[in-house]
Each structure stands twice: as structure tokens, then as C-alpha cells.
């Protein structure tokens, strides 16, 4: 057999689709379309599961819920039961995000633009390792180091209360031991730090060299260069990174369950104990003891969490797209 | 305003690799000086040492002296950031900041020096710089649109406007027309002619006709082979360089017998 390239003898006949390449690209197209469709199917399946399972609770009268579920509070409808949980979940996630995002952006900038290259790689690796720590270990750490006797959570809370007590958020008696939403939020912040850092770092590293040099050539210092070129370029990426972190914070269960002393109010006092609870931690806490209707009720709260997460993501996309014209993608 | 540049015995390294060796030249003020030569001969690298932009690349360093009006750029008490504010640079590919509007792009450099600027001063400066860059009439109705919405040639003129808005003394241009079509190239060349009354302009170009059209002095760089450093072969008045160069390499390159 010779290995000379085959030439179509008919000239223009060679332009026709060959059967072999058609099979390959057809298979690949099928696979990728299939994977894309699978995502939608899974999402729809989860939504359907939540709706069907929550249906008995959604359609029951408040009195029925109260009668058959031991832990269901008196004189409350399902909505007024879910309300404080949604509030607590959002507040905890917001605290985590407010603490974690600036730190994560700082670390990411340090790794991408300040640290010596060899050191940066090691540091990035260490940050990624934080993501590998199981959440129950974070919970233990929070309980022992922040909450427990002589924990550092109490002095931190006391200082915040003394200095910023005039802000309603930090009013109210700081909890002792520090089983407050603020401490739970701190632990959540450490947990979401790696994902935000990793995504932000990748985005910052992709800042076009051209834009960095443009600002340096105008006489920008390194920090000014970061402000002119890197941060604007990375803006939408940082929002996406924060949303990934927020997604994790909203659904995080174990650490909150172990740290927070739960309560079911719409209280802004994040330093107090027994005021708030998150949806995920509440499900984990009540599920073992729940009867069938109780499970339906918990799944209804899970449905609320699902909706919140979708809404938050859509909001973030909308924020990013508002200035898409200036994003540098064109 | 415009200043002259004197370079003496300059060696440029990337790490331990000698990229450009032993350059000595004097660039007069208020004139256009062109650097020509084959790819990889170090003319862009050399240009970047004139405002200390080459230091941005890790491991890059120089030996020798570059002085502007007698002040050495590489003495230890000179701040590279201050050098770059005095010596503007325009790059090969237009690089307006995509997240800023046209007006913000023009003001980007000025805002670094002088944050508090009244609205009317800023508007005046935008108009003056864009007029100086021959772009005002094309963009005056859409100053708040992103810089990246302009055509390539317009973007490059926007970059020139951004560079001259800080009123530098020297303007370095690194193949400013290589990504542009002939009409935009012509617009930039006209602009260079206008700007040379006020600025010392140094331009790197691959296009020998362009060097002949716009410059008063021409410097020819060459490289002997891969791994060897680039060198300045000769520098003279552009007319002399293109009619009767004194070195054979120059003549070969200019007449297309290179290689």
C-alpha cells in the first residue's frame, strides 16, 4: 500500500461531504447537544421533584400543619413559616459575601499581579486546598475556635457592638457563647473564599497585556494600572465568582447547623443568638424527626431555596449585562 | 516642550540573553526619527527602553545610559512611573480601555496626575486632544460611547489623543500603523507631521516608504542571526539613508536585497 495522499479523480467531486467525517462530527454534535439538554432535564427534574413533594404542604391549611407537625409554630401559615427562614438564609449569605469578596479579590490580585511567580503558584494551590476541606470540619473549627469558651468570636462581636453598635445590624446584646448569625457568616466566608479567589484569579490573569501596558505607558503605578485595566476587565468575572460563592453560602448546611443557635424572626441583629435560621440548616435539623407532612413542609422550604438561588443568579447576570457594551468583549 | 534623547553604549538584556547591543545615538528634539530593520532586530525593544517600558517584562534590564535633556533615565533616583508620564507611547495594536468611554479614554492619563478637574476643563482637554489627534469631528457626537466601538484607525488616533492629553515631551510609536488600512495609515502619517512641531517623535516601522515619508532621521537596525544581539547599523538624515547609505547592509535592506 502506498501512503500518498488520495486525490479525487473527478476534481470537484472532492468537494462533496465525505461519509467518514460526517459520522465523526455528527457524533460530537450529538454528544454536546445531549450534554446541554441533560442540564435542562436535570434542572427541570429537580424543580418538578420539589414541586410535587412540596404540594401536600402547600395545599394544607395552617391548622392542619400545626396539628400534625410537632415543631410547626402556632398560628402560622406556611408562608409566614418560610419567610423568616428565607430572610435568615439571605442574611447569612450576605454576611459571608461581604466578608469574603474583598479578601478574595485581594488574594487574587496578589497572586496575579504582585507575588513573585513561584510564590504565587504555591499560594494559589494552598487556597484551592481550602475548598477541599469538608464542611463539617469547618463547622468543628467554628465551634471550637470561634464559639467555644475563650473563643475569639466573642471579643470580635463585642468590639463590633461597641464601635458600630449605632448601626441596627450590630445592635442587640452580643451572644455568649457566640452562636450568632455573624459568626456563622464568618465561617461561611472562609468556606466560599477559595471558589471566589480561584475564579477571580483566572479572570485577572486574562487581562489583555495590551491594556496593562496602555495604562503603564500613561504613567500608572501598579495599583493604578490594576484600577484602570485589571479591575474593569475583571468586573463581570468577579461578579460571577461572587455568585458562585453565594450559591455555596446559600446552600451550606453543616457549618451553620453546628454554629448557629436558631430562631425564627426577621431580626437584623446579627450579633444576637436565637434570632435567625437558614433553610438548609433547618432542613437538616428537623428532617430526622419529621413525619410525612413535616417532610413535605421541609421540601417546600427547599423549593424556596431553589427559587432564591435561581433569582440571585439571574439578578447577577442582569447586573453584568447592563454594561456589556463596555465589557471589552466586543 | 519637546526634548532630545541621547543614548550611549546601551545594552539590553532579557535575563542573561543580550537582545540589543551597544547602541549609541542622538535623537534631536522637534523632529521625527524612524527606526527600520527586519523583524526581531530589536528596534521595538530599544524603543521601549526609552520610556522604561521594557522593565514591565520580568527579567528585562539595561546597561548603558539613556538621557533626556541631560537627565539620565536610569539613575537610581528616577521614578519609572514619572518617566512614562513624560514620555508617551503608542502601541502596535490600538488599545483603548474597553470599559471606558471615548472621553474617559482621553482623560485616563490626566486623571492619574490630577484627579480634581472641573467639568469644563475636562471637556476642553478632551476636545483639544481629540482635535490634536484629528479625531474630533468624527467622534464629537458620541463621546460617551465605548472606545472599542470605533474603527481600528480611529482607535489608534484615540490612543494618540490619550497619549498627547498628558502633554508629554516625547512620543514613542511602536509600529502604529501596522494594524491599519491605507487610509487610516495616511491619517496617522498626516497627524505625525502635525505633531512634530511640538513633540519629539520616535517611530518604529516595518514600512520603509512610511519611514521615508514621515521622518527626518532614520536609524537602521539589523541582526546577524538567531541568538545574536540586534545592533544599530547606521543612523543619518532620512534623505541620505534612502539615497546613499554608507553601509552595505543598509543599502541591501532598503533596496530589498536583504537576506
TrEMBL record, chain B:
The keyword Heme does not apply. InterPro entries: AAA+_ATPase (IPR003593), ABC_transporter-like_ATP-bd (IPR003439), ABC_transporter-like_CS (IPR017871), P-loop_NTPase (IPR027417), PstB-like (IPR005670). GO terms for molecular function: ATP binding. The keyword GTP-binding does not apply. Signal peptide: none annotated. Residues 5-248 form the ABC transporter domain. Gene3D superfamilies: P-loop containing nucleotide triphosphate hydrolases. Keywords: ATP-binding, Nucleotide-binding, Translocase, Transport. This is Phosphate ABC transporter ATP-binding protein PstB. It comes from Actinotalea lenta.
Amino acid at each position: 500500500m502506498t501512503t500518498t495522499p488520495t486525490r479525487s479523480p473527478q476534481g470537484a467531486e472532492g468537494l462533496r461531504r465525505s461519509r467518514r467525517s460526517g459520522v465523526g462530527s455528527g457524533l460530537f454534535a450529538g454528544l454536546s447537544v445531549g450534554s446541554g439538554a441533560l442540564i435542562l432535564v436535570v434542572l427541570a427534574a429537580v424543580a418538578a421533584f420539589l414541586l410535587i413533594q412540596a404540594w401536600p404542604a402547600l395545599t394544607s391549611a395552617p391548622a392542619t400543619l400545626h396539628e400534625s407537625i410537632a415543631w410547626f409554630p402556632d398560628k402560622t401559615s406556611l408562608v409566614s413559616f418560610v419567610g423568616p427562614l428565607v430572610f435568615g438564609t439571605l442574611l447569612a449569605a450576605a454576611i459571608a459575601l461581604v466578608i469574603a469578596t474583598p479578601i478574595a479579590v485581594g488574594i487574587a490580585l496578589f497572586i496575579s499581579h504582585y507575588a513573585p511567580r513561584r510564590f504565587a503558584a504555591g499560594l494559589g494551590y494552598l487556597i484551592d486546598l481550602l475548598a477541599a476541606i469538608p464542611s463539617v470540619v469547618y463547622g468543628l473549627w467554628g465551634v471550637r475556635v470561634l464559639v467555644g469558651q475563650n473563643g475569639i468570636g466573642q471579643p470580635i462581636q463585642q468590639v463590633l457592638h461597641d464601635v458600630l453598635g449605632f448601626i441596627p445590624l450590630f445592635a442587640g446584646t452580643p451572644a455568649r457563647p457566640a452562636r450568632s448569625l455573624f459568626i456563622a457568616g464568618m465561617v461561611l466566608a472562609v468556606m466560599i473564599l477559595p471558589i471566589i479567589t480561584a475564579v477571580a484569579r483566572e479572570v485577572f490573569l486574562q487581562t489583555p497585556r495590551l491594556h496593562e501596558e496602555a495604562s503603564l505607558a500613561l504613567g500608572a503605578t501598579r495599583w493604578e494600572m490594576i484600577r484602570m485595566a485589571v479591575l474593569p476587565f475583571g468586573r463581570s468575572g468577579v461578579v460571577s465568582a461572587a455568585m458562585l460563592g453565594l450559591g455555596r453560602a446559600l446552600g451550606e448546611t453543616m457549618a451553620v447547623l453546628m454554629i448557629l443557635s436558631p430562631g425564627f424572626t426577621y431580626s437584623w441583629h446579627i450579633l444576637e443568638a436565637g434570632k435567625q435560621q437558614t433553610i438548609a440548616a433547618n432542613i437538616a435539623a428537623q428532617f430526622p424527626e419529621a413525619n410525612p407532612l413535616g417532610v413535605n413542609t421541609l421540601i417546600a422550604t427547599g423549593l424556596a431555596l431553589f427559587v432564591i438561588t435561581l433569582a440571585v443568579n439571574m439578578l447577577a447576570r442582569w447586573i453584568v449585562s447592563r454594561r456589556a457594551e463596555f465589557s471589552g468583549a466586543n | 516642550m519637546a526634548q532630545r534623547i541621547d543614548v550611549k553604549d546601551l545594552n539590553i538584556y532579557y535575563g542573561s540573553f543580550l537582545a540589543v547591543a551597544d547602541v549609541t545615538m542622538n535623537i534631536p528634539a522637534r523632529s521625527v526619527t524612524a527606526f527600520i530593520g527586519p523583524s526581531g532586530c530589536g528596534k521595538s525593544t530599544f524603543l521601549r527602553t526609552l520610556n522604561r517600558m521594557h522593565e514591565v517584562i520580568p527579567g528585562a534590564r539595561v546597561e548603558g545610559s539613556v538621557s533626556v535633556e541631560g537627565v539620565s533615565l536610569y539613575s537610581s533616583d528616577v521614578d519609572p512611573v514619572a518617566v512614562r508620564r513624560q514620555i508617551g507611547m503608542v502601541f502596535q495594536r490600538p488599545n483603548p480601555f474597553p470599559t471606558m468611554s471615548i472621553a474617559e479614554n482621553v482623560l485616563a492619563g490626566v486623571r492619574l496626575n490630577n484627579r480634581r478637574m472641573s467639568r469644563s476643563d475636562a471637556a476642553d482637554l478632551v476636545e483639544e486632544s481629540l482635535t490634536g489627534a484629528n479625531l474630533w469631528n468624527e467622534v464629537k457626537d458620541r463621546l460617551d460611547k465605548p472606545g472599542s466601538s470605533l474603527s481600528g484607525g480611529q482607535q489608534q488616533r484615540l490612543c494618540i489623543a490619550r497619549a498627547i492629553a498628558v502633554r508629554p515631551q516625547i512620543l514613542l510609536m511602536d509600529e502604529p500603523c501596522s494594524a491599519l488600512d491605507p487610509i487610516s495609515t495616511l491619517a496617522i502619517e498626516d497627524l505625525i507631521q502635525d505633531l512634530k512641531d511640538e513633540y519629539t517623535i520616535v517611530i518604529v516601522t516595518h514600512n520603509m516608504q512610511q519611514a521615508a515619508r514621515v521622518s527626518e532621521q532614520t536609524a537602521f537596525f539589523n541582526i546577524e542571526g538567531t541568538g545574536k544581539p540586534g545592533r544599530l547599523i547606521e543612523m543619518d538624515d532620512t534623505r541620505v539613508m534612502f539615497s546613499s547609505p554608507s553601509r552595505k547592509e543598509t543599502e541591501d535592506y532598503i533596496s530589498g536585497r536583504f537576506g
